[in-house]
Inverse folding.
């Protein structure tokens, strides 16, 4: 995928564009801009850029030592179908600051094959995982197909 530059420089992020993408996603519909800004500030973020501007975004929530969670992987519709989502997640998997991490997690509704190619798989011990949802998140998940 030539012509698309990946950068972790937070100054390059088009926060308005990222907010628009995430607010239209199935996992965070209507998310508030200030929530996106806080998420960006507390994460290791990656932007993807072509000559027209930002075309992708992903972030990792991580301690850079033992655990990372890949979230909010988004590829602009015009740039889809060329492997950019896999490339961005692979960038985190291969990042020197994440070398040796024991567990990298992510959640997807429709891109399992994309991430399986990078070594991701279904949970080995799903019986050990728990989550605590806000009432809004629980209602959203119950309503989702």
């Amino acid at each position: 995928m030539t012509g698309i530059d990946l950068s972790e420089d937070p100054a390059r992020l088009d926060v308005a564009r990222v907010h628009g993408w995430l607010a239209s996603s199935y996992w965070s519909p209507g998310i508030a801009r200030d929530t996106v800004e806080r998420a960006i500030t507390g994460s290791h973020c990656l932007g993807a850029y072509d000559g027209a501007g930002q075309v992708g975004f992903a972030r990792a929530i991580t301690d850079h030592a033992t655990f990372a969670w890949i979230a909010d992987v988004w590829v602009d519709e015009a740039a889809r179908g060329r492997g950019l989502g896999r490339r961005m997640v692979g960038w985190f998997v291969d990042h020197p600051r994440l070398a040796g991490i024991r567990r990298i997690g992510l959640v997807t509704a429709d891109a399992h094959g994309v991430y399986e190619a990078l070594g991701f798989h279904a949970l080995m011990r799903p019986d050990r995982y728990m989550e605590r949802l806000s009432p809004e998140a629980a209602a959203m998940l119950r309503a989702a197909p």
